[in-house]
Every structure is written in C-alpha cells, then in structure tokens.
Write a structure and sequence with these properties.
By secondary structure, this protein is α/β, with parallel strands linked by helices. Helix content is 36%, strand content 19%.
C-alpha cells in the first residue's frame, strides 16, 4: 500500500504547536530548526515543499509579557498578531542557513468557498514553488471570524494539498502515528501502520475521544487525511521528533501511519462541500434514490426523500443518508427544510425541481 511520493509533485508538511513548543508552552528554537532542516531535506530530494505551521500564539505571548498562553479569543488573536512575525523571522533565519527562502501565506476558509479566491491562492502558491521558495502557511488568526475560519491547521494542510496538487501530505505530531486504542489508557494498543481512508477503524477515531495527538487531537488528523484522500493525496501521520521522518515518508519507507487515498479525486468546490462546511441537517433517502446517487451520479429528487432532520435554509450543506448504508453523501440543498417537508415524495415537476443538484452533491461511498 505504501509508496514513495510522486516525483516532482509538491509535498505538504504540517507541524502543530505541540511539536514546536517546550514544556512551558513557548516556541522551541530547536524544534523550529529541526523542522526547517527536514523540510529542506525533502526539497534536496527534488520535491517542492509547503510548510503549514502553527506556533504563532506560542511565539507571541511571551513577548507580550504573559506567563502563559491566553485562553480568551481577543488574547489569542493579539498573541497571534505579535507571534506570527516572530515565527516567520525564526523560520526565515533557519531556512536561510540552509540556502532556502521562505514566504508567508495567510489563508481563510473562503479560499475554497469563493472560486476567485481559490484561483488566486493557487496561483500564488504555485509561483512560490516555481521559484524554489518555501511557502509557510497559517490561518489568519488575528482577523479571521468564525464564518471564514477553517478551524484547525490539519484541515488547512489538506486544503493546501489540494491547492498545489500535492503528491503527499505529511502530518507531524507527538506520537509515532495512529493507534487503534488510546495510548494514554491502554498498555499496548495496536499501532496502525497503513489503512485505507474508508476503513472503519478511522470512523471510531474520528468520532471517539480526542486522543493525544496535539491540541487538534486524533479526529482532526483523521478528518484531514480523509479530506486529502478525496483529492487523491496519500497522508502519512508520524512523529515530528523521529530522525529523518520526512525523508523516510517521501521515500515510501515504513514510518508513521499511511492513509491510502481515494482512487480518483474530486474538485475543489466539492471538496469543501464535503469536508469544509458544517452539516445543517440530514436527508434520508430510499434505496432507489441511493442507487441513483451512488451508482448513477444523479441528482437527488423529492420523490426519493423519505425523511429529514434539521432546520436548514436553502443553500445549506446537508448530509444524505440511506437506511442500512448510513452516510452516502453531502450536498447543498435547494429547498429549505419547511419547503422540503411539504413536498416529500412528490415528482420534481410538482415540487419545484431537484432537492440537491448533482453538481452540488458529493458521493462519499464507493459505487
């Protein structure tokens, strides 16, 4: 199942705050230097590299005279404002010592929600890579609001992977990879060496206890890996402190947990519908509608809807489920919940059209 990164394709590396800080929560110069060396090593092997890095708050709050990381939103935003420049200064110095130039890229959720923003972000990242520059990406935490917030840098890294058509996503964390159980509470949990993105063990990790993998937890790593999988990108989740971890990952060596991707990728807009937008409700369909959606690539029509939950508006993202199959897809609904309830089971000509057009519908199971 494992294989080397695709030659010439960019490698996206994500490193979280817990892998960049010391016991006191402040930014570790040694950890930043180690990360820079490893990323530069990947580039020396011929892979363009993008680094998605947390750590701005950890760099900022000590400079503000604070003894511990803020917990309130304005305090976190202020610390990020102070720390982002300090973090970039540290990275710039470390990469310069290795003969590499870095560029800062701050993003928000509308890179995929807005087609023009998506294209501009993609072009900017590609130009940096073409010039041999290391894009260092973070969310714009100082000014971002909830409506534009990606939410965690694991998901952001998966989005960036899609933007640059990455050949591999490597998520660096505090443990050797994923375990079937929680290492904090089990003496010898099974280590997951390799897994397909659809395997049930990932479902339990996605919906279980947050686990030990940094502040984002196991769930965000699994969600990011699945998001990357639907872009056709394999993911390796591995320990940031392991020797030559990035080199081993791109060579296809057995390091960390390998998450096998989907055999074909989906477009940027559908990627965000599937994984970036919160579900406002669930529509349950009958077997015929499920078959038409999954195997036939059809739109969802009112005649196939059997039930719904949630008070969603027209244009909201909703999950699509089928009895005995669970979640089969997600899409943008064209009717608000009250209007849909009024036309359940009716022919589309009598109900005002499709419930979800196939262009707005992402199928999340195999046909």
């Amino acid at each position: 199942m494992r294989r080397p990164a695709q030659p010439g394709r960019p490698v996206v590396v994500k490193v979280g705050s817990s892998s960049l800080t010391g016991e006191d929560g402040t930014l570790s110069a040694a950890a930043v230097a180690r990360t820079a060396r490893q990323v530069a090593g990947v580039m020396d092997l011929g892979f363009p590299a993008v680094l998605v890095s947390s750590g701005a708050v950890a760099a900022g709050f000590p400079r503000m005279g604070l003894r511990r990381r803020p917990t309130d939103l304005p305090g976190l935003q202020a610390a990020a404002a102070v720390g982002q420049g300090l973090l970039m200064e540290r990275y710039a110095a470390e990469f310069a010592s290795l003969g590499r130039v870095v560029g800062q890229v701050l993003l928000t959720k509308d890179i995929l929600a807005n087609r023009d923003q998506y294209l501009h972000a993609r072009e900017a990242l590609q130009r940096l890579l073409d010039l041999g520059i290391v894009p260092i990406v973070n969310e714009n935490d100082t000014v971002v609001v909830d409506e534009l917030k990606v939410g965690d840098n694991d998901s952001l890294a998966a989005i960036v992977g899609h933007l640059v058509a990455a050949g591999m996503l490597i998520v660096l964390t505090d443990t050797p990879g994923l375990f079937a159980g929680d290492p904090r509470f089990e003496d010898d949990p099974e280590f997951i060496d390799a897994v397909r993105h659809t395997d049930e063990v990932l479902d339990s990790l996605l919906h279980g206890d947050p686990g030990p993998l940094g502040s984002g937890g196991v769930a965000t790593k699994v969600a990011a890996a699945r998001m990357a999988a639907w872009s056709g990108i394999p993911t390796v989740i591995a320990a940031s402190g392991a020797a030559d971890v990035l080199d081993a990952a791109v060579r296809g060596d057995s390091v960390g947990t390998w998450v096998e991707p989907h055999r074909s990728s989906i477009g940027a807009r559908k990627l965000w519908i599937a994984f970036g937008l919160p579900a406002a409700g669930t529509i349950t369909v009958d077997d015929g509608a499920a078959a038409a959606i999954v195997a036939g690539g059809k739109s969802l029509l009112p005649a196939g809807v059997r039930n719904l939950s949630g008070d969603f508006a027209a244009g909201a993202a909703v999950e699509v489920a089928a009895p005995g199959r669970g979640l089969i897809g997600k899409g943008l609904v064209r009717l608000a919940a009250p209007d849909l309830r009024a036309v359940l089971g009716l022919h589309s000509s009598d109900a005002g059209g499709e419930v979800i057009h196939r262009d707005d519908l992402v199928v999340l199971v195999a046909g």
